[in-house]
Amino acid sequence: MATALHTDALARFGHALSDPTRTRILLSLREAPSYPSEMAERIGVTRQILSNHLACLRGCGLVVAVPEGRRSRYELADARIAAALEDLLGLVLAVDPTCCPAADSEGCC
């Protein structure tokens, strides 16, 4: 039986995935931890936009900042998040293989 806690937890995850930039950040961090300047360049956004999205993802409990001297490295808060993203992506493609027309040439979503 679903509880309010379950509903809130999934709503937070859904909120994080509802924005393409936040989704790209999560998918990037699924591959490896990264520094904000590197992530901003890799996903093609300004540092300020990235910072705002990272704050949202931290608030959702999905990413953490690991201090390293004067810099912070970002990573997924739990390894299971990477597995959940992989499973969710596989499920979406299994249910609707046409969801991403460019998937064959560029990688999905």
From TrEMBL:
<dbReference type="Pfam" id="PF01022">
    <property type="entry name" value="HTH_5"/>
</dbReference>
<dbReference type="InterPro" id="IPR011991">
    <property type="entry name" value="ArsR-like_HTH"/>
</dbReference>
<dbReference type="InterPro" id="IPR001845">
    <property type="entry name" value="HTH_ArsR_DNA-bd_dom"/>
</dbReference>
<dbReference type="InterPro" id="IPR052543">
    <property type="entry name" value="HTH_Metal-responsive_Reg"/>
</dbReference>
<dbReference type="InterPro" id="IPR036388">
    <property type="entry name" value="WH-like_DNA-bd_sf"/>
</dbReference>
<dbReference type="InterPro" id="IPR036390">
    <property type="entry name" value="WH_DNA-bd_sf"/>
</dbReference>
<protein>
    <submittedName>
        <fullName>ArsR/SmtB family transcription factor</fullName>
    </submittedName>
</protein>
<feature type="domain" description="HTH arsR-type">
    <location>
        <begin position="2"/>
        <end position="96"/>
    </location>
</feature>
